[in-house]
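> example.struct
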């Protein structure tokens, strides 16, 4: 009888452990489902954020193009002797512009992105070092002008000397 009682107790313990394991498995399953739902929400939010970032980059590109157009218009009017407001060249400026050769340095000076003192220092450096580099490259190497600015001017005015 004591053996029967021992088997019965072992049986009850096995059923209890199995029931407890089932309950903890059910709890874990629910937690897994909650985590999967959260993961889906985060994926959706990530896609939305990525799309927003793409939209912002496109907007930045569009605004940069518009700004470059305004800069072209303003600088063109200034460097060609025109009226800044209307953008129309004055007759004397039209005649003068046909023989004038503009350089990147002229545009940098007109836009006040380069001071005459910095230009003099860069030209002095070029003469003393007998550097083979162009003056615009020396200006960027010496840190007087950002290389991105020089590249933007070269793109905007491809015929500059």
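> example.seq
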């Amino acid at each position: 009888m004591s053996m029967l009682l021992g088997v019965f107790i072992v049986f009850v313990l096995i059923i209890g452990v199995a029931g407890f394991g089932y309950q903890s498995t059910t709890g874990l399953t629910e937690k897994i489902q909650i985590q999967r739902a959260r993961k889906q929400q985060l994926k959706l939010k990530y896609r939305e954020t990525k799309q927003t970032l793409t939209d912002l980059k496109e907007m930045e590109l569009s605004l940069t193009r518009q700004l470059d157009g305004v800069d072209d218009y303003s600088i063109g009017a200034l460097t060609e002797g025109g009226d800044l407001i209307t953008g129309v060249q004055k007759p004397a400026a039209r005649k003068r512009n046909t023989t004038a050769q503009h350089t990147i340095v002229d545009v940098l000076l007109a836009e006040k992105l380069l001071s005459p003192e910095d230009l003099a220092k860069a030209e002095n450096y070029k003469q003393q070092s007998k550097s083979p580099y162009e003056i615009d490259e020396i200006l960027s190497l010496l840190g007087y002008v950002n290389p991105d600015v020089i590249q933007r001017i070269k793109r905007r005015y491809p015929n500059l000397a």
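> remarks
Residues 14 and 20 are 10 Å apart (CA to CA).
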